[in-house]
Amino acid sequence: MEIKRISFIEAKSPGNHIFSKFPIPRVGTILLSTILRGRGYEVKAFIEDVGRPDWTYIESSDIVCISTITSTAPRAYKIAERVKARGIPVVIGGAHTTFLPEEALAYADYVLRGEADHSITALFDYLEHGKPSIDAIAGLSYKDAAGNCLHNPDSSRVMDLDCLPVPDVTLVQEWNRMKIYPVSTSRGCPFNCKFCSVIRVFGRQYRFNSVEHSLNEIKYACAKTKENIFFVDDNFSANKKRTKELLRALIAEKIKPFWSAQVRTDVAKDEELLRLFADSGCHMLYIGFESINPVTLESYNKGQSLDEIVRCIKAVRAHGIDIHGMFVLGADTDDVDTIKKTADFAINLGIDTVQFMILTPLPGTPFFFEMQESGRLLHTDWSKYDAHHVIYKPTLMKPQTLHMETFKAMGRFYSWKYIAKHVAKLDFFHVAVGFYGKKAVREALDEAKDYFAALSGVLDCPETHVTA
Q1: How many alpha carbons lie under 13 Å from residue 125 in its C-beta half-sphere?
Q2: Where do the structural domains in the chain lie, given as residue ranges?
Q3: CATH number assigned to the domain covering 179-454
């Protein structure tokens, strides 16, 4: 086939949460679009959380590529059905379809599993020229003439990230509406949290760009935006030596972006690293505290203690950096008291913003297989696998209790007192976050009534214990 025009689509998130106003595009869509543009194709990327897709362009494309995570999969499949009805081939990739390729092949012609930086160009070479042979394309799932699903061996992970181009954000439709600019400087995570799908896609081997390559990308980002730069690395400081080199280079080059990143509590053990964060323009750290219940932390394989969490909060705030605390509620060792104490903890320790997320068994993770094998999944409506719905049977609470108490805890955090405190400081950003948080909580509690009414047939577990 002849391919000239390509559309990339990142499917829209299904619901609102505290940071829905600040969508962070996944870098993969932009990077793969850039790679294909570099091969001479006409490419546009449409990120639905940023702007509306141009369907005239999409439906005049020669091929459409769709990126999805679990919660966006139903929307991605609807897009695929619309495109295929026009006779346009569809390629789907992303974390969700990496683990459920046969599900995706009911809607798409091809599924690219895992890292697709090299396999996507091999697929396009096959489609245009018949070479390489389709069974030689690593990470590809497809159907044969008889309709059987075939899965080629997994693709190897890209070890030299510098060989990849700087993602060209201008390929994104309405890119100038992005309030947060994503920059990736590494892949992989050396840790092994049981509910996380990151290492199942990118592995535990931590790979990173050279300082020179990352500097070029940050300079490019600074030239394109006056807004936030967010380092989308799953753990920005996994290799502290390398992170320090990058931050020193930013300071030496007198580049001081307004930036934020995801880190672990172990950053508090390194005074020099925290000082470099502050001196290079870091305004907020997104920290996965996960739980204040020591037994839960152990069950999550988190590798951190409650004392370390407390020390981290105090150390980061002492350097003038805001904290977005992320907590995951609903482990088999959590009860209602755990949820209430988590809200008290976040308020009393002065965390700036929070997300209280509900433990979610994402496909491909050990937690998913555990819930599936024990018969504790309530359903597989993937749109609800967003960390804001209970989709399994907890041990020490009813599903409704976990759901409602989690959002009530959010409401306690984003209180009128929270808003008044920031009004007094003339901190209107956090005032707005507080109002938006209250609105999101109110909408979530209203939506919960319909959600649990639809699940009434499967919610027959006792309050204190659930058996498989």
Answers
A1: 12
A2: 5-151, 179-454
A3: 3.20.20.70
Per-residue tens of pLDDT for the chain, all 468 residues: 899 999 999 999 887 655 566 677 789 999 999 999 999 999 999 999 988 999 999 999 999 999 999 999 999 999 999 999 999 999 999 999 999 999 999 999 999 999 999 999 999 999 999 999 999 999 999 999 999 999 999 998 899 999 999 999 999 998 888 778 899 999 887 666 667 766 667 766 789 999 999 999 999 888 877 668 999 998 999 899 999 999 999 999 998 889 999 999 999 999 999 999 999 999 999 999 999 999 999 888 778 899 999 999 999 999 999 999 999 999 999 999 999 999 999 999 999 999 999 999 999 998 999 999 999 999 999 999 999 999 999 999 999 999 999 999 999 999 999 999 999 999 999 999 999 999 999 999 999 999 999 888 777 654 433 332
The whole-model pTM stands at 0.91
Query: Which one, of 54, 88, 70, lies nearest residue 364 by Cα?
Result: 70
Contact between 323 and 285 (Cβ < 8 Å): yes
When the candidates are 3.90.960.10, 3.10.280.10, 3.40.50.280, 1.10.3720.10, the CATH number that belongs to 5-151 is 3.40.50.280
The identity of residue 428, as a single letter, is: F
* Cα distances (Å, whole numbers) of residue 135 to 2, 27, 94, 144: 21, 28, 20, 10
Mind giving me the DSSP string for 278-319? Answer: HHTTEEEEEEEEE-S-HHHHHHTT----HHHHHHHHHHHHHT
